[in-house]
Design goal:
Elements (H helix, E strand, L loop, with lengths): L3 E5 L5 H13 L2 E4 L19 H7 L19 E7 L7 H9 L6 E7 L8 H6 L6 E7 L5 H8 L3
Parallel strand pairs: 1-2, 1-3, 3-4, 4-5
């Protein structure tokens, strides 16, 4: 069994809490995808078409900058990748992360937090940023109990 990494982006803290539980239950290392410019509450106002998140998500080629981190992706066989669902897909900062490192021959399992939507075209949109990896849909865990998260993490 290979080494596992839980990598996540969390704008409001919801995905962070879930990622921490998954890392604990799956006995995986934990890594936060941190934006160079943190998101504010106003940035996340999806009702405002001029908010930062709306502007980013309307341009699928936009790549928000992330803080440089000293992480050796080569040390991991499996990446458990988490994020909130924005506009029915992963935020483009997740693409930034996937394009920053080499995920060739890695297995990437997705988990997400979402108020009501599923993964949509997320796998397809992320595969573009990590073409030599195997990306699979995992679970939407926004309203999952600790028990449900533990059970799912135990299968990884």
């Amino acid at each position: 069994m290979g080494k596992k990494l839980v990598a996540y982006f969390s704008a409001s803290g919801t995905t962070r809490k879930v990622a921490e539980m998954i890392a604990d239950y799956a006995r995986a290392d934990l890594f936060e995808i941190t934006p160079k410019i943190p998101y504010t509450k106003e940035d996340l106002d999806w009702m405002n078409k001029k908010s930062r998140s709306s502007v980013e998500m309307n341009d699928k080629k936009f790549r928000p900058e992330v803080l440089d981190a000293d992480i050796d992706i080569d040390a991991y066989d499996e990446i458990i990748l988490g994020f909130p669902i924005w506009w029915y897909v992963a935020p483009t900062i997740v693409n930034t992360f996937l394009e920053k490192y080499n995920f060739s021959d890695k297995r990437i399992i997705l988990f997400a937090t979402s108020g009501g939507s599923g993964f949509g075209n997320t796998v397809t949109e992320l595969q573009i940023s990590a073409p030599d990896s195997v990306i699979t849909e995992g679970k939407i865990l926004n309203y999952a109990t600790k028990q449900q998260i533990a059970e799912w993490a135990g299968t990884l």
